[in-house]
Q: What sequence folds into this?
């Protein structure tokens, strides 16, 4: 849903019987390049998108959390922070409650809150609606309880909530982008050192847009496939005698090809070349601008399709049909076996590319994809 601040305030009053102390916003994110590099201690390059999750919030005197979402008509989930343990909260409320729990676990003076969430970030489209919730709640609590944490620390809080309260073994990329993003920039994150740098990504100034093509499919083997890829990466690093694949360079690939079975070798080659592509993308963005990274998107897709083998017919068609209609570069994004692709497109070609993709999907008999443009926006902040 997308409520105005006035409507959200009114709805908060309807559900909780008082006015909120304020409204905070945190965006979703899209990853420009750097796929399956995060859990290999590598590099990623996401940006905060111009679609956010709003949370209207007020603090309570007790340690009760009441959360509600405009997802539903008026259901309120109630949780008690005192005595709460990892994994205690189920369903969507684990994201917001998990953040308050993680802040308390880290020793911060957080009490209960009333929270109403309203999100413009589509769920499960690869845009991290989950991190948007976590980061909106994190900035709200950070301010209302005068916690005083900076963005990178709040990102760790959000990650802990997702890892331990939700139980999803995710990295730090989503929260880093949502909290540290800046209009016209991407966030270059080193997943080992956790250092971040803003890199100029002036899409609009250069007449460009990034299209998200949400295939709306998720193949049955997505979860198992993801776990198998993580295992292959661990095996590869073990055999090569390094802590993580991040520690290999393209010069090591020849040796790797002699030591690893063909499948594991190709998994390793994807991660190693993808890390190189992220670093190249950062250099190209600084030296030449966003148009220059288009070929890297293409080679990232080929690497995921052929070496990491996590694409699927819908994702390949999204990439091929958008490229065929004039997109400058395109690739699948996210865990694989479904989800979204992204296509770097000239603004004047958006309609044509979108129409071509829709037509190709219809012809193939696939579910109609959802296509929309995203642009790099500011990270989480107070909204009103
Ligand atoms: P994504 O890629 O969108 O982050 P996840 O599976 O990580 O996908 O997170 C999606 C989950 O986040 C949903 O299943 C739901 O639990 C929660 N969520 C997202 N948006 C909302 C919302 N507006 N209200 C309540 N819960 C939400
Ligand atoms: Mg998520």
A:
């Amino acid at each position: 849903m997308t409520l105005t601040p006035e409507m959200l305030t009114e709805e908060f009053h309807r559900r909780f019987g008082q006015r909120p102390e304020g409204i905070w916003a945190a965006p979703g994110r899209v990853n420009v390049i750097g796929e399956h590099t995060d859990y290999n201690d590598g590099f990623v390059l996401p940006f905060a998108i111009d679609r956010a999750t709003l949370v209207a919030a007020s603090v309570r005197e007790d340690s009760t959390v009441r959360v509600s979402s405009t997802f539903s008509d008026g259901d309120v989930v109630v949780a008690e922070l005192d005595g709460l343990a990892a994994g205690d909260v189920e369903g969507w409320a684990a994201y917001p409650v998990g953040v308050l729990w993680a802040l308390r676990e880290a020793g911060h003076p957080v009490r209960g809150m009333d929270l109403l969430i309203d999100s413009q970030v589509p769920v499960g489209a690869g845009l991290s609606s989950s991190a948007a919730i976590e980061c909106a709640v994190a900035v709200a609590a950070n301010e209302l309880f005068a916690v005083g944490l900076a963005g990178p620390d709040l990102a760790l809080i959000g990650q802990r909530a997702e890892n331990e309260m939700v139980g999803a073994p995710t990295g730090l990329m989503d929260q880093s982008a949502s909290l540290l993003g800046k209009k016209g920039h991407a966030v270059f994150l080193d997943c080992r050192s956790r250092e971040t740098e803003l890199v100029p990504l002036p899409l609009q100034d250069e007449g460009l847009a990034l299209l998200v093509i949400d295939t709306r499919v998720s193949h049955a083997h997505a979860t198992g496939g993801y776990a198998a890829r993580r295992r292959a990466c661990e095996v590869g690093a073990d055999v090569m005698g390094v802590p993580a694949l991040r520690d290999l360079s393209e010069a090591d690939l020849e040796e790797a090809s002699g030591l690893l079975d063909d499948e594991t070798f190709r998994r390793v080659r994807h991660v190693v070349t993808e890390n190189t592509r992220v670093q190249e993308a950062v250099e190209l963005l600084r030296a030449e601008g966003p148009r220059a990274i288009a070929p890297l998107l293409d080679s990232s897709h080929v690497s995921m399709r052929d070496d990491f083998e996590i694409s699927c017919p819908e994702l390949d068609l999204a990439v091929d049909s958008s490229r065929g209609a004039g997109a400058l570069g395109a690739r699948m994004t996210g865990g694989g076996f479904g989800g979204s692709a992204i296509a770097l497109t000239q603004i004047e070609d958006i309609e044509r590319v979108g129409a071509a993709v829709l037509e190709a999907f219809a012809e193939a008999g696939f579910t109609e994809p959802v296509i929309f443009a995203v642009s790099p926006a500011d990270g989480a902040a107070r909204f009103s």
Q: What stands out?
A: The first strand starts at residue 22 and ends at 31.
